[in-house]
Structures are given as structure tokens and as C-alpha cells.
Amino acid sequence: MYTWLPIGSTADLGKLAGEIGHEYDPTRVAQRLMGGLSPAVKGVLIERQYIDKDYRSTYYNYYAKKGQTYRTDCVRLHFFDSTVSFDATAQKFLWPDARLDDHYFGYMVLRPTGIATIGRSVLSPDVREGLRAGAPIITSRHKVHVLGYRLAVEGFPSMDQHIDISVCAHAACWSILRHYSERYSNYREYLTHDITMMAHAFNPGGLVPSRGLDVSHAEHVFQEAGTFPMIVTRKSPRDVLFYRQLLAYVESGFPLFAAMHKWSHAVAVVGCEWKTALARGSTKLRYAWDLVESLIVVDDNSLPYRSVPMVGTAQYSSRHIDAFIVALPEKVFYPADAVNGLTPWLFALGPLLGLQPERDTVARYFMTTGSALRRFMRNRESEFDPNLMREVMTLPFAQFVWIIELSSAADWAAGQISARAVLDATASLRDPKPFWLFHSRSRALIFDRRSVGVASSGVRAISLSGMSATALTRWDQNLRPTQRK
Amino acid sequence: MASKHTNKKRTKDVAPTPVEGLTATEVGVLEAFVATMNDKVIPEIVRKEEERRVLAASSRHWPLKT
């Protein structure tokens, strides 16, 4: 049932073809792995007769009804580093320290469908060839049970489309919703067949799903899953507001369902790669989007975490993404385009806070929770005036807040900021002061949101001391930085 | 930049409400900001949101099948 395949070089992955039945199309799987896995993968455990819930959901509802006979079981591949070996007699792993998790890079299920056999997979971004170290990626912790061991891998779920009963849009919806169910306890798990059914108001029957979906079907899937989807569509190829919003939601930890009209294709956007150097001497306000080198996507036609540059000669570039759906939680009423509209006007408050010139500033905005903000500051108490800490700990935040960080070019290069505004994500679009807080290194404005209709009387200012020379760390907590192996 | 970000017309002849920790001049800056939000920023935010909804409607029927 279990076979250990030592990997001396990535070419050894080709030996999978001799170990796995043709119904799992091991040759194509090996080619996919050879083209995308880093040499850090030195051992593969092949687990046969694996019962996969997602494949079974399609088997019961589709493959079992066909004249051709399909197997009911799958094969699962587990990936390990060079320190792990396998004792075939005792059927156990051997490794040098206490934590097997540290040497585990995730798994890939192979379906017995002959074509498009790569099923539910969670691979660590750390072993994705071509991905830059430090690239922030949305991940969650996935538990894995094998041989009596309980392992865990940090990654984003992916699978190939089935082609006959699901297409790229189903795979992208499935990936995003599986991430939600693993990451957040208030979302339930949906299997592959569930996703195909959720796209329509009624059971379309037969092979209808394979004829494709449209964007509204994907929106319906996210609605059915209990999220509050919002579609954002690009106005023109030069519509920077579209891309700023896209980045803001990704940096908030929301994987995006991204559509490419030209290619009739959908992927999940799960991260980005920053430019390595920031040009100094800008004459206008810059946004975080201006500093993005490429987006990281989960595309059902390749291994996960594909780096998609802004322009390029590959099949598609980030510029081909012209619409996205963000599956928001309830209680987010102030969207990213409103935050974008407000951001340049923050400098009108510059005289009160001693803000640096707009032209020397990089603005970055993203959403998080009030609890995460408090945790972020608590873990960095030495960076803040105790009076500011007290204010943040006692402000009656709603669940979600928008953070706007302002950095000089020098701050940005050092991973620092010079000012941070905290906005109420439940604010109305017509709220003239959607703030909880706006602080620099020298002063903070505190906004009292417990009264409706008060003018400037709802505001207080406090002077901050001891922060002029401390590190004010840029917030990179929502996504996991890739650690290249 | 100050002239771009302030709305002197709205704040002219209006006595600023005292704000804890701010001087009267600084309160004027704050009230000018609120006036600018009401007169310029919020109408633009609302217009952009309407535009987003229209654009979203146009993309709802894009096919996705590859």
C-alpha cells in the first residue's frame, strides 16, 4: 500500500510512472512535478487505496453513473525533504528530530480518471520552483493523517479541473472555499460536486457544468457558501484603481477569484512578489501596487503558486486579469475603492500629525480585524507610546478595520512606516470621518465613533513620545512569507 | 498641497468647536478636512462605487471554461 521513492534529482520523479497505474496518468503527473518542484524534495511516499472525499463526491454523482467503470480509490503522494527516510518493514518514517512537520512539504491526490488526474492537493509554497523567497502568500494550516502520523502543511488548496464535469472556474471556487473552511471556523467544507451544484439555481444535470460557467455562476457559488461576494471589473487596461483594489484584498488575506475575459479563464490570486528595489525621488504619491513585480496564482493548468508577471511572454500576464470576485465576510461595508479615494486626502491632516510630503510617500492599505491590530501592537509594545497602546486597547472596534500605512521610500526599504490610519470597515460610504485612529510618530488623532452626528467634538488628539526613533514595523501579518527550500 | 486639500470657502466665518489636544488653528484644519470630504471626496467615492456596480454587471456573463 505504501512505497517510498527516493529523489536524487527531479528527474527521478519520472519513476512515478513505474509505480502507479495508468488510470492515474502518472507520466503527465511526473512531468508537472518535474517542471515545478524544487530540488529540496528528496523523498515521495506513494500511498495507494486512498479514499479522497472530493473524488468520491464526483464518483457518487457522476462517474458511477457512466458505462465505463472507474475505480473508487485514489493515490496520494506525500513530499519530504532529505532528512526523512522510510522503513518499509516497520512501515514508519525515520527523521532526525522531534518535528516531522518541518520536513514535510504537503501532498497531492491522484484521481483514477485517466485525464486531468491531479486532485485535491496542498503543497508548501516553499518548494515551488521559480517563486521568490519572501513572496507573501495566503495560506492556512492543513492537517494530514498518514501511517498513524498527524502531519500539517501550510499551503493553499489546489486541483486540476475534471474537464468533463468541472472547469477552471469550479476549481478556483473550490480552492478558495476550501481555504475558507480550513482557515475560518464559520465556513463549512464544500466538496467538488457541491461546488458544481452551487453554481446553478437548479440541478442542470448531465454534462452542463463542463460547458463552462460564467462570472455570475461563480458569484452564486460564493453566495451559496455564505460569503458576500463583490465583483470588481477593470474599466480599461490602464485602470490602476482596479489593481490597487485587487492587491488590497489579497493583502487582507482574501484569495480572489480572478477572471481573464480574453482567455475565458479563471484562477485564484493568492499572493504577490514585490519589486526588489524602489526608485527614489517620485514626484507624486505612490501606492503599494506600483511596487508589485508579479502576482501569485493558483491555476488549475499548472502546479500551484504560479508567478504571473505584469507583462511577459507566457500564456498570460497579470494584465490579462480584468475582473475579480472577492468573497467578503458580512460587516464589510466600506470597500477598497472608497479607501483608495480617501487615501490622498489624508495629507490634508498632515499639519496635525507632521506627515512627510505626499510625493515621498508609499501608501498601502488592507483589511484586518480589530483583534489582529491589538495583537500586532501588543507583540511590538516597544514601538509605541504607552498612551497610544492604551487608546488602541480600549477603542470599541467593529470586527473589521482597514489599515492605511504611509511610508517614505527609506521606510519602505527598511520594512517600516511613518504613519498608520485605522478606518472602520463598517463605515458608510458617506461618512466624512470613517476613522478610529490616525497616528504618526509624534501625534495621534482618536475618533469617537460611539456617537452619531457629532462634528469635530468626537475627535481627540494626543501627543506621542518615545516614538521618533523606534522601528514602526510595516504590517505583513496577513500572508505568509515564502521560505525557499 | 494645502490648497488642494482644504476647503476654505466652507470654513470661512465658522467658529471652530474646541477639540481636546488641538489648537484653534488645528481644529480649523480638521473642519476643513471634513468639509472637503463632504464636498469632494464622498461624491467621488459614491460615483466610483456606482461605476463599479455598472462594470460588474457588464462582466457577469463572461464565459469561463478553459
**Which band does the percent of strand residues of chain B land in?**
under 5%
DSSP E strands of chain B, number = 1
Please summarize the sheet with the most strands of chain B: none
Give the biggest sheet of chain A.
Answer: 7 strands, antiparallel
Distance between the termini of chain A: 29 Å
Number of helices of chain B: 3
- Multimeric state: heterodimer
Write down how many β-strands of chain A occur, each being a DSSP E stretch of 2 or more residues. Answer: 25
| Mean pLDDT across all amino acids of chain A | 93
- Terminal Cα span of chain B: 49 Å
Overview of this structure, please?
Chain A has three domains: 2-160, no CATH class; 216-328, Cathepsin B, Chain A, CATH 3.90.70; 336-481, no CATH class. In chain A, the strands form five sheets. A seven-stranded antiparallel β-sheet of chain A has the order 1-2-3-6-7-10-9. In chain A, strands 15-19-20-21-22-23-24 form a seven-stranded mixed β-sheet, sandwiched between helices. Chain A has eleven helices and 25 strands. Helix content of chain A is 20%, strand content 29%. Chain B has 66 residues and is mainly alpha-helical. Chain B has helices at residues 2-5, 8-11, 24-59, and one strand at residues 63-64. Chain B is rod-shaped, with a radius of gyration of 20 Å. Classes of the chains: A alpha+beta (485), B mainly alpha (66).
